[in-house]
Design a protein that fits this description.
387 residues; mainly beta; Immunoglobulin-like; five-stranded mixed β-sheet; elongated; disordered C terminus
Length: 387
């Protein structure tokens, strides 16, 4: 095929947007066409007609084509192509959604285009309208190249301020270093967004009915609050006192309220549970988990312990050594002098050993009668009067 000139036919100035245009080259019978396109411009064809797609990444350049067959190639045809950008519009405040109150006057202004067409009927940079209910406001902007783009604002209009916020749900006591703690409130009537306020050192953000917070080392005990918002104003807030604890205070001493029957410690702030342990053979009848317990004492003494705990961990363990069961001595308290055989007895406890002590009434020193060995339980001694 002898070298011949061919031409490309189509628009030489287009917009950088997502649409298609058709370009053609002079038709020659029995040949194949090879098309080349600028960067970001897509399309393919081996005929004299090609459909070209322009996107936002398309840039200016040349469209070229050559025709060829077994006899040879044509000359390459070029069409310089200018791809114009779309208007880069900006609506002041950049609102995708805006909230207002019924009957209020609203003004929005834009920049970035040469001509403006608002759905409100305004044809300059700004538009104004009275809000009523919910609607969309659309702006069509056009530049001097004839390229256009749109922006839409969703306008939500309320008739009154939101209802009062309900009770905040979430832990009142928190620990330094805790993360991902969630607080929430039931959906508030007429609220289009929510405003949360947090204590110093507590971090988190949300404009919905729940918030997830982290407790930093600098956190302070204070109120967490939330209130509903809309275009008419703010509703009544709800408040929850958040108490921040680093660790439990010292447990303190166990107090014997009634020997062998009741023991307690002073209540501690933040504590959620008290774990008591008693000697073998003793029984806790009530109060486990609280700061005071009632018990039935066993035969032998030992150690009573209590450990307070809360969500941040355990406090220190407090201990108290206690004796075993109390026994009574049976026998007469007045005996005749010279009586060499007088029998005394005490309660029989399986497995126990007994240590007897006799003290003369007129003397300060005690006379110890030989016995088996010292016992491990509490004893009851009586003073005998020698007649």
């Amino acid at each position: 095929m002898p070298s011949i000139n061919i031409s490309i036919h189509g628009e030489s100035s287009v917009c950088q947007t997502n649409y298609d245009k058709i370009y053609t080259a002079d038709f020659i019978e029995g040949v194949t066409y090879d098309w080349t396109l600028p960067d970001g411009v897509t399309g393919s064809s081996n005929s004299n007609v090609i459909t070209v797609h322009f996107g936002q990444s398309s840039v200016s350049g040349n469209i070229s084509v050559r025709a060829f067959n077994s006899c040879g190639d044509s000359l390459t045809a070029l069409l310089p192509l200018t791809i114009n950008p779309l208007p880069d519009m900006y609506i002041w405040g950049n609102p995708d959604t805006t909230y207002t109150c019924n009957g209020s006057w609203n003004v929005y202004c834009a920049s970035g285009a040469d001509q403006y067409t608002w759905s409100t009927g305004d044809n300059w940079e700004c538009c104004g309208f009275y809000s009523q209910g919910s609607t969309n406001v659309t702006l069509l902007g056009t530049n001097n190249s004839g390229c256009s783009s749109t922006k839409t604002i969703h306008v939500i209009s309320s008739s009154s301020i939101p209802s009062a916020a309900g009770t905040i749900e979430g832990p009142e006591n928190v620990c330094i270093g805790q993360d991902s703690i969630t607080y929430s409130v039931s959906p508030i009537n007429d609220a289009t967004s929510y405003t949360w306020s947090l204590p110093s050192g507590v971090t988190g953000t949300s404009n919905s009915s729940s918030i997830t917070v982290n407790i930093t080392p600098d956190a302070q005990s204070a109120d967490i609050s939330v209130q509903g918002e809309n275009g008419c104003g703010s509703g009544q807030m709800s408040v929850l006192l958040m108490t921040v604890a680093a660790s439990l205070p010292q447990t303190g001493q166990i107090i014997c309220l009634q020997e062998g029957l009741q023991y307690a410690i002073n209540p501690l702030e933040f504590v959620e549970n008290y774990t008591w342990t008693v000697p073998d053979g003793w029984t806790i009848t009530e109060g486990q988990g609280t700061n005071s317990i009632s018990v039935i004492s066993g035969t032998f003494g030992g150690i009573i312990q209590v450990t307070p705990s809360f969500s941040c961990g355990n406090g220190s363990t407090s201990s108290l050594k206690v004796g075993g069961a109390t026994i009574s001595i049976n026998g007469t308290s007045a005996i005749c002098s010279g009586n060499l055989n007088e029998t005394f007895s005490t309660d029989l406890i399986d497995g126990a050993v007994y240590n007897w002590i006799v003290q003369k009434a007129q003397q300060d020193t005690a006379i110890q009668i030989p016995s088996m060995s010292l016992s491990t339980h509490q004893q009851k001694a009586e003073l005998f009067k020698l007649l």
